[in-house]
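ok so for the tutorial part 2 we go from a plain amino acid sequence to predicted C-alpha coordinates. step 1 is just haveing the sequence, like this:
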Amino acid sequence: MRYLIGRYHEIALKGRNQWRFVNQLKTNVRNVFSDYRLGRMQSVGPRLMVPLPDELPDAIAIDRARLVFGLQNFSLSYPVERDLVAISKEAALRARGLPARSFRITARREDKTFPMTSPQIDRAVGAAVVEALGLKVDLHNPDLTISIEVMRDAAYVSAGKIAGAGGLPVGATGKALGLLSGGIDSPVAAYRMMKRGLKLDFVHFHGQPLVSSASREKAVDLATHLVRYEGQTALMLVPFGILQREIVAQTLRPLRVVLYRRFMLRIASALAERVGAAALMTGESLGQVASQTLENMAVIEKAASLQIFRPLVGMDKNEIIEQARALGTFETSILPDQDCCTLFVPAHPETHARLAAVEAAESPFDIPRMVSDAINATEVVRLSFPQHVDETLAAKATESST
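step 2 — the prediction. this is what the C-alpha coordinates look like for a chain of 402 residues:
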Protein backbone atom coordinates (compact mmCIF):
# COMPACT_ATOMS: atom_id res chain seq x y z
CA MET A 1 0.00 0.00 0.00
CA ARG A 2 1.26 3.46 -0.95
CA TYR A 3 0.02 6.83 0.14
CA LEU A 4 0.18 10.16 -1.57
CA ILE A 5 0.97 12.52 1.28
CA GLY A 6 0.21 16.04 0.15
CA ARG A 7 1.34 18.91 2.34
CA TYR A 8 -0.31 22.30 2.25
CA HIS A 9 0.94 25.63 3.49
CA GLU A 10 -1.47 28.46 2.74
CA ILE A 11 -4.49 26.30 3.55
CA ALA A 12 -3.08 25.73 7.03
CA LEU A 13 -3.30 29.48 7.67
CA LYS A 14 -7.07 29.67 7.13
CA GLY A 15 -8.04 29.15 10.75
CA ARG A 16 -11.68 28.20 11.31
CA ASN A 17 -12.33 28.17 7.55
CA GLN A 18 -9.56 25.66 6.89
CA TRP A 19 -12.04 22.79 6.60
CA ARG A 20 -13.68 24.41 3.54
CA PHE A 21 -10.37 24.56 1.70
CA VAL A 22 -9.43 21.02 2.74
CA ASN A 23 -12.77 19.67 1.51
CA GLN A 24 -12.29 21.42 -1.83
CA LEU A 25 -8.77 19.99 -2.02
CA LYS A 26 -10.11 16.49 -1.43
CA THR A 27 -12.68 16.97 -4.18
CA ASN A 28 -10.02 18.17 -6.60
CA VAL A 29 -7.71 15.25 -5.81
CA ARG A 30 -10.55 12.83 -6.50
CA ASN A 31 -11.30 14.62 -9.77
CA VAL A 32 -7.72 14.47 -11.05
CA PHE A 33 -7.61 10.75 -10.22
CA SER A 34 -11.19 10.04 -11.30
CA ASP A 35 -10.12 7.15 -13.54
CA TYR A 36 -8.65 5.34 -10.51
CA ARG A 37 -10.30 4.22 -7.28
CA LEU A 38 -8.64 6.09 -4.42
CA GLY A 39 -8.99 5.05 -0.80
CA ARG A 40 -10.53 7.15 1.96
CA MET A 41 -8.62 10.44 2.29
CA GLN A 42 -7.77 11.90 5.68
CA SER A 43 -6.48 15.27 6.78
CA VAL A 44 -3.79 14.86 9.43
CA GLY A 45 -2.30 18.14 10.59
CA PRO A 46 -1.09 20.07 7.51
CA ARG A 47 -1.21 16.89 5.40
CA LEU A 48 -3.65 15.13 3.14
CA MET A 49 -3.27 11.35 3.28
CA VAL A 50 -4.44 9.69 0.06
CA PRO A 51 -4.35 5.86 -0.26
CA LEU A 52 -3.34 4.93 -3.82
CA PRO A 53 -4.48 1.76 -5.63
CA ASP A 54 -1.85 -0.74 -6.71
CA GLU A 55 -2.72 -0.36 -10.41
CA LEU A 56 -1.83 3.35 -10.40
CA PRO A 57 1.76 3.75 -11.70
CA ASP A 58 4.07 6.01 -9.71
CA ALA A 59 4.77 8.21 -12.74
CA ILE A 60 1.08 8.91 -13.32
CA ALA A 61 0.51 9.55 -9.63
CA ILE A 62 3.31 12.12 -9.60
CA ASP A 63 2.23 13.82 -12.83
CA ARG A 64 -1.38 14.12 -11.65
CA ALA A 65 -0.48 15.35 -8.16
CA ARG A 66 1.61 18.14 -9.70
CA LEU A 67 -1.60 19.54 -11.21
CA VAL A 68 -3.42 20.00 -7.90
CA PHE A 69 -3.39 23.56 -6.64
CA GLY A 70 -3.24 23.69 -2.86
CA LEU A 71 -0.44 21.13 -2.45
CA GLN A 72 2.83 22.82 -1.58
CA ASN A 73 4.70 19.54 -1.94
CA PHE A 74 3.93 15.83 -1.83
CA SER A 75 5.54 12.43 -1.71
CA LEU A 76 4.72 8.81 -2.39
CA SER A 77 5.02 7.24 1.04
CA TYR A 78 4.94 3.70 2.36
CA PRO A 79 3.49 2.82 5.80
CA VAL A 80 5.39 0.57 8.19
CA GLU A 81 5.06 -0.34 11.84
CA ARG A 82 6.12 2.27 14.36
CA ASP A 83 9.31 0.37 15.03
CA LEU A 84 12.85 1.65 14.44
CA VAL A 85 13.97 -1.55 12.70
CA ALA A 86 10.98 -1.53 10.33
CA ILE A 87 11.45 2.17 9.60
CA SER A 88 15.17 1.71 8.89
CA LYS A 89 14.56 -1.21 6.53
CA GLU A 90 11.93 0.76 4.59
CA ALA A 91 14.21 3.81 4.37
CA ALA A 92 16.99 1.69 2.87
CA LEU A 93 14.49 0.07 0.49
CA ARG A 94 13.24 3.47 -0.73
CA ALA A 95 16.81 4.66 -1.37
CA ARG A 96 18.06 1.48 -3.02
CA GLY A 97 18.70 1.82 -6.75
CA LEU A 98 18.31 5.60 -6.86
CA PRO A 99 21.10 7.68 -8.46
CA ALA A 100 22.19 9.28 -5.20
CA ARG A 101 25.58 9.37 -3.54
CA SER A 102 24.55 11.40 -0.51
CA PHE A 103 21.42 11.60 1.60
CA ARG A 104 19.84 12.94 4.73
CA ILE A 105 16.94 11.79 6.90
CA THR A 106 14.16 14.23 7.79
CA ALA A 107 11.84 12.86 10.45
CA ARG A 108 8.66 14.51 11.77
CA ARG A 109 6.51 13.25 14.62
CA GLU A 110 2.82 14.02 14.21
CA ASP A 111 2.36 11.78 17.26
CA LYS A 112 4.58 13.16 20.02
CA THR A 113 4.05 10.03 22.16
CA PHE A 114 6.50 8.14 19.95
CA PRO A 115 9.45 7.42 22.32
CA MET A 116 12.18 8.89 20.09
CA THR A 117 12.56 12.54 19.12
CA SER A 118 12.88 13.58 15.48
CA PRO A 119 16.68 14.13 15.72
CA GLN A 120 17.08 10.73 17.35
CA ILE A 121 15.15 9.09 14.51
CA ASP A 122 17.29 10.98 11.99
CA ARG A 123 20.53 9.69 13.48
CA ALA A 124 19.40 6.10 14.02
CA VAL A 125 17.82 5.61 10.60
CA GLY A 126 20.68 7.47 8.91
CA ALA A 127 23.21 5.11 10.43
CA ALA A 128 21.19 2.11 9.24
CA VAL A 129 21.04 3.46 5.67
CA VAL A 130 24.80 4.10 5.65
CA GLU A 131 25.42 0.55 6.80
CA ALA A 132 22.99 -0.95 4.26
CA LEU A 133 23.88 1.12 1.18
CA GLY A 134 27.16 2.90 1.90
CA LEU A 135 25.75 6.32 1.05
CA LYS A 136 27.33 9.48 2.43
CA VAL A 137 25.42 11.68 4.88
CA ASP A 138 25.08 15.30 3.72
CA LEU A 139 22.85 17.50 5.85
CA HIS A 140 23.17 20.61 3.67
CA ASN A 141 23.08 19.60 0.00
CA PRO A 142 22.12 15.92 -0.26
CA ASP A 143 21.27 14.15 -3.51
CA LEU A 144 18.36 12.49 -1.71
CA THR A 145 16.18 13.33 1.27
CA ILE A 146 14.38 10.43 2.92
CA SER A 147 11.30 11.66 4.77
CA ILE A 148 9.81 9.88 7.75
CA GLU A 149 6.46 10.96 9.21
CA VAL A 150 5.40 9.25 12.40
CA MET A 151 1.61 9.19 12.76
CA ARG A 152 -0.59 7.51 15.33
CA ASP A 153 -1.28 4.46 13.18
CA ALA A 154 2.04 3.99 11.36
CA ALA A 155 5.28 5.55 10.22
CA TYR A 156 5.33 6.72 6.59
CA VAL A 157 8.59 6.61 4.64
CA SER A 158 9.27 8.30 1.31
CA ALA A 159 12.27 9.02 -0.89
CA GLY A 160 12.15 12.77 -1.39
CA LYS A 161 9.48 15.45 -1.55
CA ILE A 162 8.19 16.67 -4.90
CA ALA A 163 7.23 20.30 -5.44
CA GLY A 164 3.50 20.81 -5.86
CA ALA A 165 1.53 23.54 -7.62
CA GLY A 166 1.03 25.53 -4.41
CA GLY A 167 -1.67 28.17 -4.05
CA LEU A 168 -5.27 27.40 -3.13
CA PRO A 169 -7.58 24.61 -4.35
CA VAL A 170 -9.45 25.49 -7.54
CA GLY A 171 -13.04 26.37 -6.66
CA ALA A 172 -12.27 27.51 -3.12
CA THR A 173 -12.54 31.23 -3.90
CA GLY A 174 -15.34 31.30 -6.50
CA LYS A 175 -15.95 31.11 -10.23
CA ALA A 176 -15.13 33.44 -13.11
CA LEU A 177 -15.30 33.47 -16.90
CA GLY A 178 -11.91 33.88 -18.59
CA LEU A 179 -11.55 35.61 -21.94
CA LEU A 180 -9.27 33.24 -23.87
CA SER A 181 -7.81 35.03 -26.87
CA GLY A 182 -5.62 32.28 -28.31
CA GLY A 183 -2.52 34.39 -27.71
CA ILE A 184 0.27 34.12 -25.16
CA ASP A 185 -1.21 36.15 -22.32
CA SER A 186 -4.63 34.76 -21.45
CA PRO A 187 -3.58 31.16 -20.64
CA VAL A 188 -0.97 32.52 -18.22
CA ALA A 189 -3.60 34.77 -16.65
CA ALA A 190 -5.93 31.79 -16.29
CA TYR A 191 -3.24 29.70 -14.61
CA ARG A 192 -2.47 32.46 -12.12
CA MET A 193 -6.13 32.89 -11.17
CA MET A 194 -6.71 29.15 -10.84
CA LYS A 195 -3.74 29.12 -8.48
CA ARG A 196 -5.67 31.58 -6.34
CA GLY A 197 -8.52 29.08 -6.09
CA LEU A 198 -10.70 30.47 -8.89
CA LYS A 199 -12.74 28.04 -10.99
CA LEU A 200 -12.81 29.14 -14.65
CA ASP A 201 -14.97 28.64 -17.67
CA PHE A 202 -13.73 30.28 -20.87
CA VAL A 203 -15.04 32.37 -23.75
CA HIS A 204 -13.28 32.82 -27.09
CA PHE A 205 -14.30 35.37 -29.74
CA HIS A 206 -13.48 34.24 -33.27
CA GLY A 207 -13.85 35.77 -36.70
CA GLN A 208 -15.77 33.03 -38.45
CA PRO A 209 -17.34 32.93 -40.97
CA LEU A 210 -15.15 35.74 -42.26
CA VAL A 211 -11.85 33.97 -41.49
CA SER A 212 -10.64 30.39 -40.99
CA SER A 213 -11.29 28.26 -37.92
CA ALA A 214 -7.62 28.39 -36.82
CA SER A 215 -8.15 30.63 -33.79
CA ARG A 216 -11.08 28.54 -32.60
CA GLU A 217 -9.00 25.38 -32.83
CA LYS A 218 -6.19 27.05 -30.88
CA ALA A 219 -8.64 28.08 -28.18
CA VAL A 220 -9.80 24.46 -27.83
CA ASP A 221 -6.19 23.28 -27.57
CA LEU A 222 -5.37 25.88 -24.91
CA ALA A 223 -8.49 25.15 -22.88
CA THR A 224 -7.72 21.43 -23.10
CA HIS A 225 -4.31 22.14 -21.58
CA LEU A 226 -5.75 24.33 -18.83
CA VAL A 227 -8.57 21.98 -17.85
CA ARG A 228 -5.98 19.62 -16.34
CA TYR A 229 -5.76 22.02 -13.40
CA GLU A 230 -9.49 22.15 -12.66
CA GLY A 231 -11.04 18.91 -13.89
CA GLN A 232 -13.95 20.32 -15.88
CA THR A 233 -14.62 23.47 -17.83
CA ALA A 234 -16.74 24.89 -20.65
CA LEU A 235 -15.29 26.81 -23.58
CA MET A 236 -17.80 29.15 -25.23
CA LEU A 237 -17.03 30.03 -28.83
CA VAL A 238 -18.60 33.30 -29.95
CA PRO A 239 -18.72 34.13 -33.69
CA PHE A 240 -17.76 37.81 -33.60
CA GLY A 241 -16.96 38.63 -37.23
CA ILE A 242 -20.50 39.59 -38.28
CA LEU A 243 -20.86 41.90 -35.28
CA GLN A 244 -17.51 43.49 -36.09
CA ARG A 245 -18.63 44.10 -39.66
CA GLU A 246 -21.72 45.86 -38.35
CA ILE A 247 -19.54 48.11 -36.18
CA VAL A 248 -17.23 48.87 -39.10
CA ALA A 249 -20.15 49.99 -41.24
CA GLN A 250 -21.20 52.71 -38.77
CA THR A 251 -18.09 53.74 -36.79
CA LEU A 252 -15.06 55.89 -37.55
CA ARG A 253 -11.86 53.86 -37.72
CA PRO A 254 -9.97 55.01 -34.60
CA LEU A 255 -12.72 53.92 -32.17
CA ARG A 256 -13.44 50.52 -33.66
CA VAL A 257 -11.10 48.52 -31.40
CA VAL A 258 -12.57 50.12 -28.28
CA LEU A 259 -16.07 49.25 -29.46
CA TYR A 260 -15.05 45.68 -30.24
CA ARG A 261 -13.74 45.26 -26.70
CA ARG A 262 -16.82 46.80 -25.11
CA PHE A 263 -19.09 44.42 -27.00
CA MET A 264 -16.91 41.50 -25.97
CA LEU A 265 -17.31 42.45 -22.32
CA ARG A 266 -21.08 42.84 -22.68
CA ILE A 267 -21.35 39.39 -24.25
CA ALA A 268 -18.94 37.84 -21.76
CA SER A 269 -20.83 39.37 -18.83
CA ALA A 270 -24.10 37.88 -20.05
CA LEU A 271 -22.51 34.46 -20.59
CA ALA A 272 -20.84 34.61 -17.18
CA GLU A 273 -24.12 35.26 -15.42
CA ARG A 274 -25.67 32.27 -17.20
CA VAL A 275 -23.00 29.88 -15.89
CA GLY A 276 -22.90 31.34 -12.38
CA ALA A 277 -19.59 33.18 -12.72
CA ALA A 278 -19.16 36.23 -10.51
CA ALA A 279 -16.32 37.93 -12.42
CA LEU A 280 -14.49 38.15 -15.72
CA MET A 281 -10.76 37.52 -16.26
CA THR A 282 -8.58 38.90 -19.03
CA GLY A 283 -4.92 38.65 -20.02
CA GLU A 284 -4.49 42.41 -20.33
CA SER A 285 -1.15 44.02 -19.51
CA LEU A 286 -1.00 47.79 -19.14
CA GLY A 287 0.42 49.50 -22.23
CA GLN A 288 1.01 46.30 -24.19
CA VAL A 289 -1.32 47.14 -27.12
CA ALA A 290 -3.52 50.06 -28.15
CA SER A 291 -6.62 48.80 -26.35
CA GLN A 292 -4.68 48.37 -23.10
CA THR A 293 -3.78 51.97 -22.36
CA LEU A 294 -5.03 53.30 -19.04
CA GLU A 295 -7.69 55.47 -20.70
CA ASN A 296 -8.94 52.75 -23.05
CA MET A 297 -9.08 50.10 -20.33
CA ALA A 298 -11.12 52.46 -18.14
CA VAL A 299 -13.61 53.16 -20.96
CA ILE A 300 -13.84 49.53 -22.07
CA GLU A 301 -14.47 48.07 -18.62
CA LYS A 302 -17.54 50.28 -18.12
CA ALA A 303 -19.38 48.05 -20.60
CA ALA A 304 -19.01 45.05 -18.28
CA SER A 305 -21.61 44.25 -15.64
CA LEU A 306 -19.15 42.21 -13.57
CA GLN A 307 -15.80 42.96 -11.97
CA ILE A 308 -12.73 42.22 -14.07
CA PHE A 309 -9.58 40.46 -12.87
CA ARG A 310 -6.36 41.34 -14.72
CA PRO A 311 -3.61 39.20 -13.13
CA LEU A 312 -1.00 40.23 -15.72
CA VAL A 313 -1.65 43.96 -15.65
CA GLY A 314 1.76 44.82 -14.15
CA MET A 315 3.86 42.25 -16.02
CA ASP A 316 5.99 42.87 -19.10
CA LYS A 317 5.93 40.66 -22.17
CA ASN A 318 9.16 38.81 -21.39
CA GLU A 319 7.82 37.81 -17.97
CA ILE A 320 4.60 36.55 -19.53
CA ILE A 321 6.45 34.60 -22.22
CA GLU A 322 8.66 32.97 -19.58
CA GLN A 323 5.60 31.84 -17.64
CA ALA A 324 3.87 30.63 -20.83
CA ARG A 325 6.89 28.45 -21.62
CA ALA A 326 6.85 27.01 -18.09
CA LEU A 327 3.11 26.39 -18.35
CA GLY A 328 3.50 24.65 -21.70
CA THR A 329 1.13 26.87 -23.69
CA PHE A 330 3.66 29.07 -25.50
CA GLU A 331 4.15 26.88 -28.58
CA THR A 332 0.40 26.61 -29.14
CA SER A 333 -0.18 30.32 -28.56
CA ILE A 334 2.31 31.40 -31.23
CA LEU A 335 0.81 29.24 -33.97
CA PRO A 336 -0.42 31.48 -36.81
CA ASP A 337 -4.14 32.16 -37.02
CA GLN A 338 -6.69 34.75 -38.11
CA ASP A 339 -8.55 35.86 -35.02
CA CYS A 340 -11.08 38.60 -34.48
CA CYS A 341 -8.46 40.77 -32.78
CA THR A 342 -6.82 41.34 -36.18
CA LEU A 343 -10.04 41.59 -38.19
CA PHE A 344 -11.03 45.11 -39.34
CA VAL A 345 -8.37 46.72 -37.14
CA PRO A 346 -7.49 50.29 -38.21
CA ALA A 347 -3.90 51.28 -38.83
CA HIS A 348 -4.04 53.97 -36.13
CA PRO A 349 -6.48 52.99 -33.37
CA GLU A 350 -7.47 55.42 -30.64
CA THR A 351 -5.26 55.10 -27.55
CA HIS A 352 -6.89 57.77 -25.36
CA ALA A 353 -10.60 57.16 -25.80
CA ARG A 354 -13.15 59.34 -24.01
CA LEU A 355 -16.31 57.76 -22.69
CA ALA A 356 -18.63 60.42 -24.14
CA ALA A 357 -17.21 59.94 -27.63
CA VAL A 358 -17.43 56.15 -27.37
CA GLU A 359 -21.03 56.24 -26.14
CA ALA A 360 -21.93 58.61 -28.98
CA ALA A 361 -20.37 56.18 -31.46
CA GLU A 362 -22.43 53.34 -29.99
CA SER A 363 -25.72 55.25 -30.04
CA PRO A 364 -26.81 54.03 -33.53
CA PHE A 365 -26.50 50.37 -32.53
CA ASP A 366 -29.22 48.10 -31.19
CA ILE A 367 -26.92 46.81 -28.47
CA PRO A 368 -29.34 44.34 -26.80
CA ARG A 369 -30.13 42.74 -30.15
CA MET A 370 -26.46 42.48 -31.16
CA VAL A 371 -25.48 40.91 -27.82
CA SER A 372 -28.43 38.50 -27.99
CA ASP A 373 -27.56 37.44 -31.55
CA ALA A 374 -23.97 36.69 -30.53
CA ILE A 375 -25.06 34.68 -27.50
CA ASN A 376 -27.61 32.68 -29.49
CA ALA A 377 -24.92 31.78 -32.05
CA THR A 378 -22.39 30.73 -29.39
CA GLU A 379 -21.18 27.14 -29.41
CA VAL A 380 -19.95 25.30 -26.32
CA VAL A 381 -17.11 22.81 -25.98
CA ARG A 382 -17.23 20.86 -22.74
CA LEU A 383 -13.85 19.65 -21.53
CA SER A 384 -12.86 17.33 -18.72
CA PHE A 385 -9.70 15.76 -17.37
CA PRO A 386 -8.70 12.96 -17.18
CA GLN A 387 -11.87 11.81 -18.93
CA HIS A 388 -12.25 11.95 -22.71
CA VAL A 389 -12.54 15.52 -24.02
CA ASP A 390 -15.96 16.14 -25.56
CA GLU A 391 -15.37 18.32 -28.59
CA THR A 392 -18.94 18.13 -29.88
CA LEU A 393 -20.00 21.64 -30.77
CA ALA A 394 -23.71 20.88 -30.49
CA ALA A 395 -24.77 22.66 -27.31
CA LYS A 396 -25.60 26.33 -27.52
CA ALA A 397 -24.71 28.75 -24.75
CA THR A 398 -28.38 29.15 -23.91
CA GLU A 399 -28.58 25.41 -23.26
CA SER A 400 -25.44 25.37 -21.11
CA SER A 401 -27.14 27.48 -18.45
CA THR A 402 -29.99 25.01 -17.87
